[in-house]
Structures are given as C-alpha cells and as structure tokens.
Design goal:
This protein has helices spanning 5-11, 14-27, 30-33, 37-43, 48-76, 78-99, 103-113, 116-128, 136-146, 154-164, 166-191, 196-204, 210-214, 217-225, 228-258, 266-288, 294-313, 321-350, 356-371, 373-384, 388-410. It is mainly alpha-helical.
Length: 419
C-alpha cells in the first residue's frame, strides 16, 4: 500500500500539496452549481439549441485562450497565471450567472468563462512539474476525487430547490461559488510557489512578448506529431471531452423533461455520482493500472457506452426508472473517473517536461477546436429528440474503443508502468 492514494496524499509536499489540498474548495464552489447550469438556462427561457450554442461559444472562447495559455503561463509564471485566470475564468462568470436573466447574460458569461483555458494549462503545470513522475496518475486521481466533494452539500441543494424552486436556489449556489472560489484562489496563491521549470521559463521569456512566444508553436506541434503516445493521449482526451460536454449539458434536461424526474431530485443524483467517483478513484481504478493502459481505457469506454445506452432506454413511466437511472450513473461514474485520470496522465507521461506549458496549450487547443461544434450539434439534436445527443455519444465511444485497440495492437506503450 506504499503507493496507495491515501499514502500519496499523506506524503504530498510543495505545490502538489497546495493544489490537492485546495481542490475541495472547487468541489464546494463551482462544482456544486455547474451541474445545474443547463436546467437553470432552460428555466430562464432558453431552448435546447440555444443552450447547446452557449456551450459551443464557451468552448471556442477556451480555444482562443488556450492558444495563448502556453506563452502566458511561461511569461508570467504558473502561480500568477493560475490566480489571475481563476478570477477571470470562474469568479466573474459566477457573478454573471448569479444575476442572469436571459440569453445575453449566459453568452457573456460563456465568453469570459472561456479564459479558464489558461488555468487548464497553468494549474496543471503547478500541480505536476515538481511532482515525482511515478505519482502523476495518483495525484490526478486525488484532485478528481476531491473535486467531487460537492456531494457533502448536495442535500442542502435539494432542500433549497424544493423550498425556493429552481431559479432562486441556483442563484444562491452561484453566489456561494463566487465566494468559495475566491477563497480558493487566495489560499492556493499563498500556499504555492513558482515551479523550478517555471523559473527557468520566466528567465528564458524575459524581453519577449506573448505574441513572439506564440510563434514557437510550430516546433511544439512538430514535437507532438513525432510522438505516437502524445497523439493518442490527445485523441483519447478529445473523445472524453466531447462525450462529457454533451452529457453534462443535456443529462439534466433529459432526466427532467423526458423522464419527468423532479428538479429537486437532481442534487441526489449528483451525490450518487460524486460518491461513485470517489470510490472508483480510490479503490477500483488503481487496481487496473497494471502494465499497459489498454484494458483500463477499453473498460472506461465500454462502461460509458453501457451507461449512455441504458439512459436512452429508460421508460418515463413507473418507479423502475429511478433504479435504472442510478445504474446508468454507476457505469458513467466509473468511466468519467477513469477517462479523466487516464487522459491527463497519458499526456503528462509522454510530454517533454521543459515544453510542458506549450504542449498542454496545443493539446487543449485541439480538444476545444474538435469539441466546440458538439455543443451546438447536441442542442439541435436535443430539439428533435432528447435521446439523440446520447446516441451521438454512443457512436463516439465505439470509435474510442476501436482507436484504443488499434493503437495498442501497433504499439508497445507501457506508460502505466511509470505511474
């Protein structure tokens, strides 16, 4: 058990400890309210296609910010970039969502929220660069699990919705999200320091502006294209993001509008998902990390497939729908936890440490570029039938299984042995 998650948690120090220890504040702030954003928009008069359009705009904004995220992270440092763009990417949008009244509020919030494309890069660098390579997978497992601690307060959300109705309850959650996210930003900034690689990049980028630094992406892209492992890890992450974006946007809509589940019950389902994610990450997924990562990836894609397939087959009538929804969440919960951890771990294992910021920027840019149309596509499909976004997910998951099998048939990639 020397390499168990609990053992790794106790031994954390420096920046990994600061990032992991403050992650519960993410779970208790933004992760507590973001699952209800789509039904919140629906309640304020937006239709499915407009909700999907908002999702696409947010991803396009993330794409633009991720283009600059590598140079920004190198130029001002991992620590400072994380603090600044956590405020822009989460605190300010939370205030806009809190006061939202119509489509235009959500559109502006989505554009600003896209600036978290910078922190997706800088925070990962802050978390990983001073950590031992063999602990990367387990550190990502810890951050994912702690991000799910919103389950602790989900019963309060259920009470708020049942007492106040959906809109005022979600407004309270977004105000809470702003406050706790601001606290997280302050604590993380004070508890962390610039990474060793970050210090080197700060010196190397002196006298160069952001746009000059962006000009070096050509070499980084060439570096990525020469590594089958990095290409594969980016493709896997892209599939995970596409399915996750569709599922996160339209799951609540399908459950409340097609299956006719009360909105007050949504927090209880989120409790179930969060508890599952923590259990899987601590006790199930680590047991799969033996040898190559082929089997964990195939299991994850297959589990997601089963969860999505079961979801669209659930009847709207009868009490049987409740245990079937929970069963679909069991499959989804394992898949989300596994794919999140494996996708992040794969890229961080294969990349060149000195170019981490720019490689992660290119990776995130590609993921956002590929994923962004699917929000709008999912919205259009959901307007036709609320099953169709999930049928699209099923097709993507089957493709993920095929690509994984082909990659490992032609590769002796034993990356998991280094985790």
């Amino acid at each position: 058990m020397s390499d168990s998650l609990l053992s790794v948690f106790k031994k954390l120090k420096g920046n990994p400890r600061a990032c992991v220890y403050t992650e519960p504040l993410w779970g208790l702030s933004m992760n507590l309210c973001m699952p209800y954003l789509s039904v919140y928009m629906l309640a304020l008069g937006l239709n499915d296609s407009r909700i999907g359009f908002i999702t696409t705009i947010c991803m396009l904004s993330q794409f633009l910010f991720s283009f600059l995220s590598g140079p920004i992270t190198d130029k001002i440092g991992r620590r400072k970039a994380t603090a600044i763009f956590d405020v822009f990417g989460w605190c300010i949008p939370a205030l806009i969502w809190w006061r939202a009244e119509n489509f235009w509020f959500f559109l502006v919030a989505a554009i600003i929220n896209g600036s978290n494309g910078v922190t997706a890069n800088s925070w990962t660098c802050l978390l990983i660069e001073d950590a031992e390579k063999k602990q990367i997978t387990r550190i990502f497992s810890l951050t994912t699990a702690f991000g799910q601690l919103s389950a602790v307060f989900a019963p309060i959300t259920a009470v708020l919705i049942s007492r106040l109705t959906l809109i005022p309850a979600i407004k309270i959650l977004f105000l809470n999200g702003f406050i706790l996210m601001a606290v997280k930003v302050i604590i993380l900034y004070l508890a962390s320091k610039e990474t060793e690689i970050g210090k080197i990049r700060l010196d190397e980028t002196k006298g160069k502006n952001i746009f000059q630094l962006s000009g070096g992406y050509g070499e980084v892209i060439k570096m990525i294209l020469q590594s089958r492992g990095m290409i594969f890890s980016i493709v896997i992450a892209a599939f995970s993001w596409i399915v996750g974006a569709i599922n996160n946007t339209f799951w609540q809509i399908l459950v409340t509008k097609k299956l006719l589940v009360s909105e007050a019950l949504l927090p209880l389902f989120n409790i179930f998902k969060s508890v599952l994610a923590i259990i899987f990450l601590f006790f199930v997924i680590p047991k799969l990390l033996k040898g190559i990562l082929k089997l964990p990836l195939v299991f994850a894609f297959t589990s997601y497939f089963l969860g999505q397939f079961l979801l669209i087959m659930i009847p709207a009538e009868g009490i049987i729908k409740y245990p079937l929804i929970l069963l679909s969440l069991v499959f989804d919960g394992f898949a989300v936890g596994a794919l999140t951890m494996l996708g992040e771990s794969l890229i961080n294992i294969h990349l060149v440490p000195g170019e981490r910021a720019r490689i992660l920027a290119i990776r995130f840019m590609f993921i956002m570029l590929v994923t962004s149309p699917f929000g709008w596509i999912g919205g259009i499909l959901s307007d036709i039938s609320r099953n169709l976004p999930f049928i699209l997910n099923i097709a993507i998951l089957v493709t993920g299984i095929v690509i994984t099998m082909v990659y490992y048939r032609k590769s002796n990639d034993h990356s998991a042995e280094h985790t």
